[in-house]
Amino acid sequence: MFFKNLTKKNKIRLIVAGVALVLIVLMIVALDLRLKTVQYEIESEKVENKVRVALVTDLHSCKYGKDQKKLVKALEKQNPDLVLLGGDIFDDELSPENTKKFISAIADKYPCYYVTGNHEFMCSDEIFLSYMNFLEEKGVTILKGSAETIEINGEKINICGIDDPTLRNVEGYNYFAGDKRTVDGKGDYDWYGQLDLIDEIAQNGNYTLLLSHRPERFEKYAEYDFDLVLCGHAHGGQFRIPLLMNGLYAPNQGFFPEYAGGRYDSGDMTMIVSRGLAIECTFLPRIFNRPELVIIDIE
Length: 299
Ligand SMILES: [Fe+2]
Fold this sequence. Notes:
alpha/beta, six-stranded mixed sheet, elongated, binds fe (ii) ion
């Protein structure tokens, strides 16, 4: 009735204002970069008591408030049993200070495990080594074709990790690749060697978790005996349209990436891909793609 009584000119004005308002709201929602916590639940016959894992990937040394407090508080709120750092925690261009502040704030509170991402390997040897040394000084375990069995809440869990396939020989960084280790640092070949090596550990009957930066190798992981694979790297495909498009583009996957973020199952294996925490380091903005802290409950 109200609309009918308007003049033609005012009807057009009202429609334009309505459309503009919808677009503004959409833009605000689309460009929202507030940190969110995403939770997954995984059931396994191998685990009776709940184990809570936090997955932090692709921080790229981005800022989350003063002294990284937004990220630290979000993590503390979830009270995880361990924290897994899935690569690209540092960036090859941004100062490492934000990452260092974050690691310093959490490393003595939780068992922390780390694997490399491609951006750490894009740093010079000297810088790369300084980052690895920093992590070790803080008590973070660097998994590089290696694994540890740890006991959490009475559950024995294998924590395995492999380097990013761009790995190269850096003097002082002694990664493992079994008899496949190359002298000239052909990373991809060593990457397969690392997988073979840790697969032996996965045979002890414990729940086995693999931390690896790369999600696009899902089918390769499924050939092994891992229960849970945790990855990053895809940054959620940068642009998303909820319910319609789970990512526009991801490195090493191209357009409309299959493994841009979320949960993927193959037989008894589950892979969870974090959309990561990169914000100011990316050339294009994230759209409908809020940075995320991932929490996984295994029970
Ligand atoms: Fe990344």
